Hints:
The complex is a heterodimer of chains A (549) and B (150). Chain A is α/β, with parallel strands linked by helices and 549 residues long. Chain A has helices at 7-19, 34-38, 41-54, 95-104, 130-133, 151-156, 161-170, 172-182, 194-203, 224-231, 233-247, 261-277, 307-314, 343-355, 357-361, 394-401, 435-440, 459-473, 479-496, 504-518, 522-526, 529-547; strands at residues 27-31, 62-66, 78-81, 85-87, 114-115, 122-123, 210-215, 251-257, 292-298, 338-342, 371-378, 384-389, 411-416, 422-425, 449-454. Chain B has 150 residues and is α+β, with helices and mostly antiparallel strands. Chain B has helices at 3-12, 20-31, 36-46, 50-59, 79-83, 86-97, 139-147; strands spanning 71-75, 110-114, 127-129, 132-134. In chain B, a hairpin with a 2-residue loop joins β3 (127-129) and β4. The longest helix of chain B has 12 residues, at 20-31. Flavin mononucleotide (FMN) is lined by residues 186-190, 192, 194, 214, 216-219, 302-303, 305-307, 340-342, 345, 447, 521-523 of chain A.
Amino acid sequence: MPRINSAAELETLRKDILSRRDPGKPAIAICAGTGCLGLGNDKVISAFQEEIKKRSLEAQIEIRATGCHGFCEKGPNVILYPEEICYLQVTPEDVPEIVSETLLGKKVIDRLIYTDPMTGEKAAHQSEIPFYRNQMRNLISNNTRIDPSSIEDYLAGGGYSALSKALFEMGPKQVLEEIKKANLRGRGGGGFPAGLKWETARNAPGEEKYVIVNAHEGEPGAFMDRALFTGNPHCVLEGLIIGAHAIGSHQGFIYTRHDTPQLKANIDTALAKTREYGFLGKNILGSGFDFDVEVHFDVGIFVSGESSALMRSIEGKNPEPRPKYIRTSVSGIWDKPSNLNNVETWANVPQIISKGAAWYTGIGTERSKGTKLLSLSGNICHTGVVEVPFGTTLREIVYGIGGGIPNGKKLKAVHFGGPMGGSVPESLLDTPLDFDAMSKLGAPIGAGGMLVLDEDTNMVELTRFYLDFLTNESCGKCVPCREGIRQMLKILTKMCEGKGKEGDIELLEEIAEVAGAASLCSLGKTASDPLKGTLRYFREEYEASIKGK
Amino acid sequence: MDNDTIDQIIDRHEGRAGSLIHVLMEIQSKNHWIPREALAKVSQKLGVPFTRVMQIATFYKTFSLTPQGHHEVHVCTGTSCHIRGSQRVLDKIQSLLGIRAGETDSNSKFSLAKGNCLGCCTLGPEIVVDGRHYARMTPEKAEEVLKKYN
Ligand SMILES: Cc1cc2nc3c(=O)[nH]c(=O)nc-3n(C[C@H](O)[C@H](O)[C@H](O)COP(=O)(O)O)c2cc1C
Ligand code: FES
């Protein structure tokens, strides 16, 4: 493939790709996400490959191993195009029948489609299954339509047209204005406006500037960044390149997990392809803009997802955070202005540029715009990756999408943000998903790990669990964090063993306050958030564990 | 793994102090642990003080400075797996293998690790053996899985 040297050449290539494709051609999209692979979908993939080969249907039927479809609970997942028939819990034994009955015979196999556990109603198509129907899948829906290793698939769906628009029609200033107008807020935890951060980096003195994708996703219970990045790497890359152009950066970094081989492979392939096509490298699309990307890996510690720690790690040092008064947008990697955003934040950029801030701000609430990816897990019927517009109530997510609580149990609480987040009780379930509303309740959305807890959950134990996690993940540099967490953990462990004593709760509150005020980075500052939150809504459980009931 | 392969990895990054983590990662993933001689060589060839190499090698949990077993078993104890009973799975595996998390058995057959959410939260409790994920584990199912590696 020769390099693309102008916007016009890009459109010619796109037309060419589309002209070679028949939208009515049957395609089998088999989920190769971590969840489905854990359930043995690799065997389903090879069974399809064999069956198609055996029947010499290679030319008529396309097979795609895709990223996570979302409905991990019912995996292994298979979607048949063009009808979008969803088959759930597929086994290799089902494969010959699917090929003969559905792909060739155009008949739906009843046993493999979704059945509503309440009504017994069947749903064959993706658009009819409540789990999918009640979402707004602006970002994640492409996962089922593209093969992550194929840049042509991405281009066929309009890929890199936003980059072309940004380079040739808009220019850096206008792109920046658009992102500001869209009020895109960071999806990695803080909800900080991306436009403002970009502007700071853009205006910071110095020629050399960096842009970084935070794909560390170290929060336990969060898996949506990996689902999106593994399934649709070009979408994140396109956002990054647009951002780099707006900020005036020529060097980007991807910081990601070392323990997800599929993600690593997909990123590498995507980078190689973008270089080959001229979306990365010198003189991108003939615009005169140069930009390239390097991949770095975390090597197993949660705190390296924190912005300044992450930058130390890229420099090849220990990931110890710096105090916040040094802003990384001004002085980050090697003390150069460095703009860090989360995977999902970057992935939002292309659609904002393509469709405009006005379209984008039409989705969501007053101050939280667009959609949010959530990792839905815990005591819930339908676990998986979910995307909803901001403003969707927690109740709609738990019951409308998540299908409620299994085993006839009652819902107790919903926990957001993992070890640095908080829980809201059942009584607050009508709260809309919104950065500020959730923060006010002491359960900031964080990265989007949404853990559903049933009535059997012991909230004191859960808090102890999170602190136990954090003691191992604190970098140890500052005392309030290192010692504060350790002492709180000690007290909580005793309480869980039924050895709590009078005054423990007050002592916990005191330590939490000091660690919160005096720690260097957000890890220590927010380590006690689950504690504070559970004390706020479930204090009686703490009291009970002291009285030894 | 033979020393030649380690040497090759190190040689490819000669003189590039910034590649420290990359080199260690590569050795770890190919060799499953990093011998002391390799650390010394990394220090020398990349031009990084030995103390800094040790600082990095001991800080990040991924790097192992002792030999690992032939099979690496990882039990996820992330939140979701935890509330769905990963502790019982871990207990079972510990008693089956006769080692605790963080240890390697005496005939270097199995190494056991715990912790670190692996992103399969939808299907917990999960264990990973030599990179292969096994979802919805129970103590009994885990026993079945381990038999395959015996
Ligand atoms: C201990 C700790 C761990 C973090 N881990 C992550 C992470 O894994 N991924 C992420 O995107 N942000 C993480 N963050 C937040 C980052 O510091 C940073 O705010 C974020 O990546 C900025 O991107 P955004 O503005 O697009 O959200 C973490 C923060 C802390 C304090
Ligand atoms: S991993 Fe297959 S649907 Fe999520």
